[in-house]
């Protein structure tokens, strides 16, 4: 899959691009509804012997349109989104920079530049996709904004347990610590990727050494607390117990939440490595303990529950 970063105006020539079927959307989370849009575009492209592309945007439009919302957390930061889309037999991914210039485009200018201008003959999108100034273009009126030939397919609402599958619903599930629902809506693990960095090394003194994780991307994190997690290191899977929170036993400061993971049955030096953490089950809320003995006793209970969960 070739990845192109575009802004307005882009310099690609439609004459150099083969006729293309494209799926378009922001696709944060790449959940079941997004997957349906992309798979439909892939199927149409194969049946019509055309290329297939995905068009997405970065950053989230709310960062540009709402000046008070400059620090948005993503279910799938851009690098992860690119990696996931690469698994869908897509020829090209267009990442369009969302800025004030793009937000001011009329729907017809957007279609002319980013659809016809990329030799897209058939556009696939969800029923709630909008484009152009103030989102005035949509999949119901799209053909009113062009006088050129364009086929379109609108994907209807995808539901789960009689409710719409959406990024908002997944975020709520994560806020509630309902990892099972989030996994079901995504149809995959809820994961983050980060670098193992040096911490205060307090865990090793009480028999629970931890890998402290520094995130280089802006992830939407689940509810503060203790979790059973899968840990992937160099392609190998391990099990662990993770604390996402503020370590109130040792500090009264509530800064950014920290992630530290005790990897079960593991004793290797992984400082500086990037590892993947998949949240599997919410165990309990974060607590402030009266002393080390009380903390260790709780960690022993957590470990027992997590080992039972993983059937270790």
Automatic annotation (TrEMBL):
<dbReference type="Pfam" id="PF01687">
    <property type="entry name" value="Flavokinase"/>
</dbReference>
<keyword id="KW-0288">FMN</keyword>
<dbReference type="GO" id="GO:0003919">
    <property type="term" value="F:FMN adenylyltransferase activity"/>
</dbReference>
<keyword id="KW-0511">Multifunctional enzyme</keyword>
<keyword id="KW-0808">Transferase</keyword>
<dbReference type="GO" id="GO:0008531">
    <property type="term" value="F:riboflavin kinase activity"/>
</dbReference>
<dbReference type="InterPro" id="IPR023465">
    <property type="entry name" value="Riboflavin_kinase_dom_sf"/>
</dbReference>
<keyword id="KW-0274">FAD</keyword>
<comment type="pathway">
    <text>Cofactor biosynthesis; FMN biosynthesis; FMN from riboflavin (ATP route): step 1/1.</text>
</comment>
<dbReference type="InterPro" id="IPR014729">
    <property type="entry name" value="Rossmann-like_a/b/a_fold"/>
</dbReference>
<comment type="pathway">
    <text>Cofactor biosynthesis; FAD biosynthesis; FAD from FMN: step 1/1.</text>
</comment>
<protein>
    <recommendedName>
        <fullName>Riboflavin biosynthesis protein</fullName>
        <ecNumber>2.7.1.26</ecNumber>
        <ecNumber>2.7.7.2</ecNumber>
    </recommendedName>
</protein>
<keyword id="KW-0067">ATP-binding</keyword>
<feature type="domain" description="Riboflavin kinase">
    <location>
        <begin position="185"/>
        <end position="311"/>
    </location>
</feature>
<dbReference type="InterPro" id="IPR015865">
    <property type="entry name" value="Riboflavin_kinase_bac/euk"/>
</dbReference>
<dbReference type="Pfam" id="PF06574">
    <property type="entry name" value="FAD_syn"/>
</dbReference>
<keyword id="KW-0418">Kinase</keyword>
<keyword id="KW-0547">Nucleotide-binding</keyword>
<dbReference type="InterPro" id="IPR002606">
    <property type="entry name" value="Riboflavin_kinase_bac"/>
</dbReference>
<dbReference type="InterPro" id="IPR015864">
    <property type="entry name" value="FAD_synthase"/>
</dbReference>
<comment type="similarity">
    <text>Belongs to the ribF family.</text>
</comment>
<keyword id="KW-0285">Flavoprotein</keyword>
<dbReference type="InterPro" id="IPR023468">
    <property type="entry name" value="Riboflavin_kinase"/>
</dbReference>
<keyword id="KW-0548">Nucleotidyltransferase</keyword>
């Amino acid at each position: 899959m070739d990845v192109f970063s575009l802004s307005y105006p882009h310099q690609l020539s439609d004459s150099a691009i083969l006729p293309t079927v494209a799926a378009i959307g922001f696709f944060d989370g790449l959940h079941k509804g997004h997957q349906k849009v992309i798979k439909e575009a892939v199927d149409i492209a194969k049946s019509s012997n055309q290329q297939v592309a995905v068009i997405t945007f970065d950053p989230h439009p709310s960062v540009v349109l709402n000046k008070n919302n400059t620090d948005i957390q993503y279910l799938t930061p851009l690098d992860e989104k690119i990696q996931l889309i690469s698994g869908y037999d897509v020829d090209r991914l267009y990442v369009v920079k969302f800025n004030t210039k793009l937000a001011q485009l009329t729907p017809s200018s957007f279609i002319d530049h980013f659809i016809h201008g990329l030799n897209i003959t058939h556009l696939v999108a969800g029923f709630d996709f909008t484009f152009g100034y103030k989102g005035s273009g949509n999949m119901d009126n799209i053909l009113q904004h062009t006088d050129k030939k364009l086929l379109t397919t609108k994907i209807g609402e995808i539901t789960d347990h009689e409710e719409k599958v959406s990024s908002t619903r997944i975020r709520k599930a994560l806020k509630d610590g309902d990892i099972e629902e989030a996994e079901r809506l995504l149809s995959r693990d809820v994961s983050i990727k980060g670098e193992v960095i040096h911490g205060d090394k307090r865990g090793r003194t009480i028999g629970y050494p931890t890998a402290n994780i520094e995130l280089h991307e802006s992830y939407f994190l689940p509810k503060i607390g203790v979790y059973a997690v899968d840990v992937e290191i160099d392609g190998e899977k391990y099990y662990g117990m993770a604390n996402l929170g503020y370590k109130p036993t040792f500090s009264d400061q509530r800064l950014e939440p920290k992630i530290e993971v005790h990897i079960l049955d593991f004793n290797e030096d992984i400082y500086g490595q990037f590892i993947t953490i998949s949240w599997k089950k919410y165990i309990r809320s974060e607590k402030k303990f009266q002393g080390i003995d009380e903390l260790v006793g709780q960690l022993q209970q957590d470990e027992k529950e997590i080992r039972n969960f993983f059937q270790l």
